[in-house]
Design a protein that fits this description.
single chain, alpha/beta, TIM Barrel, 6-stranded parallel beta sheet, 9 helices, about 15% strand, binds pyridoxal-5'-phosphate
């Protein structure tokens, strides 16, 4: 991909995010863009770094492993946004600065053990399942209060908020419902003394809705880097429908 096109798309997505913020009566400074670089190689990511990107979202551990070495000089913060198998916790503890897909206690325990070993702590978001689609990962909403309480005992996991993927739908109201639920869960948690300022929700196709519903971070792949060479069913271990 050429650097000029990347620069244009990067500038354009920031403008679109800013416009969505203004339309929602929000300050654009409240909404981060997390570039999602899955399937794109080190050269593209390096070009992104030259444009000021520093955090990159990936959804496979193997891709972070493959890219972290060649890009070691770039000071990148790798953000794991995909389903994370417990037996891959070791690599993530070593390589990632943040995990947005924490959705079960077994994984929290494995990460904590490995992070203690590495002498590090990382930022985490709890991924919540906000849509009825059977194939989606994420914690069922009703389990969130207990899960947040349990996470208090892991010093290596800095719990900063919630993450979700909206339902794959052409119906904006259904998508909005997922984002609204995440925001409500955040507010309910606040009432129980869990401070969760971050809401990671919204992707290339639905970020304006997410911003209207309170997203503080949108995860953008296609609109920055262009179309991926494989269908999304390849990245989500099970089909999203
Ligand atoms: C791929 C991916 C994104 C970005 O999707 P785009 O539609 O390309 O912007 C966001 N979140 C997760 C979890 C992803 O896997």
């Amino acid at each position: 991909m050429d650097t000029r096109a990347l620069a244009d798309q990067w500038a354009q997505i920031r403008r679109r995010v800013d416009a969505a913020c203004r339309a929602a009566g929000r300050d654009p400074a409240e909404v981060n863009i997390l570039p999602v670089s899955k399937t794109f190689g080190p050269d593209v990511i390096r070009a992104g770094v030259a444009l000021g990107m520093r955090r990159f979202g990936e959804n496979k551990v193997q891709e972070i492993r493959d890219k972290a070495g060649p890009l070691a000089d770039c000071g990148i913060d790798w953000v794991m946004i995909g389903h994370l198998q417990t037996n891959k916790a070791k690599d993530i503890a070593r390589l990632a600065s943040e995990v947005q897909s924490l959705d079960r206690l077994e994984l929290a325990e494995a990460l904590d053990r490995r992070l203690q070993h590495e002498g590090r702590a990382i930022d985490v978001l709890v991924q919540v399942k906000t849509s009825p689609e059977p194939s989606k990962y994420g914690l069922p909403p009703e389990q969130l209060p207990g899960f947040l309480n349990a996470l208090r005992s892991y010093d290596t996991l800095r719990v900063g908020g919630l993450m979700t993927l909206a339902i794959l739908s052409t119906e904006p109201a259904e998508i909005r419902g997922c984002f609204r639920l995440l925001c409500e869960l955040r507010d309910q948690a606040a009432a129980q003394d869990h401070d969760l300022p971050k809401l990671s929700m919204g992707m290339s196709s639905d970020f304006p809705i997410a911003i209207a519903e309170g997203a503080t971070e949108v995860r953008i792949g296609t609109a920055i880097f262009g179309k991926r060479p494989y269908p999304d069913s390849y990245y989500w271990p099970e089909p999203r429908v």
